[in-house]
Structure to design on (188 residues):
């Protein structure tokens, strides 16, 4: 039987607690203000999660994209109706601007050096808002009506800084270039 020293045992316990708390799945997350989402997915990179309610009668989807982030960084989630990567995606971005308020807006991504300025998307977007709670930034929106499809390509992103109220470029290696996938808004 191995004998573990008290400091080593304490370190192991603390590390276990950190790993358990950081591995919280989207299913166990509770939004403030009694917001409830029927579906969610833990995204494989960038410590991010997507929650949604799809309304077939109106072909709209209410989304909440949340990701771990500092108060000086930014997050974005997008649908790409024309491809599988960043270019062509229709994004929602959130960050703190220079006056200290948290803002969220739509922006089309037309190139790898996109301006990330507010702009119209190829589908309607309403009720855009954002929150920052416990080092997690969340952007909320209602999208649609979407075209006849519930299966979409989506991308998500995070960056470390905002300059002159515009998100700066994100890292172009590792998880930041792996943050894309296919998604079906219909349950099951």
């Amino acid at each position: 039987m191995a004998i573990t020293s008290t400091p080593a045992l304490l370190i192991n316990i603390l590390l276990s607690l950190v790993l358990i708390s950081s591995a919280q799945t989207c299913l166990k997350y509770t939004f403030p203000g009694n917001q409830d989402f029927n579906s969610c997915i833990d995204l494989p990179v960038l410590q991010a999660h997507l929650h949604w309610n799809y309304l077939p009668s109106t072909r709209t989807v209410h989304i909440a994209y949340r990701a771990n982030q500092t108060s000086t960084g930014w997050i974005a989630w997008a649908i790409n109706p024309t491809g599988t990567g960043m270019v062509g995606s229709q994004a929602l971005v959130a960050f703190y601007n220079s006056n200290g308020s948290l803002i969220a807006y739509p922006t089309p991504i037309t190139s790898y050096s996109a301006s990330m300025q507010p702009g119209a998307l190829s589908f309607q977007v309403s009720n855009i808002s954002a929150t920052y709670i416990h080092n997690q930034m969340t952007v909320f929106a209602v999208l649609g009506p979407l075209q006849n499809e519930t299966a979409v390509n989506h991308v998500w992103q995070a960056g470390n800084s905002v300059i002159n109220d515009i998100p700066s470029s994100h890292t172009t290696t590792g998880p930041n270039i792996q943050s894309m996938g296919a998604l079906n808004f219909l349950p099951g």
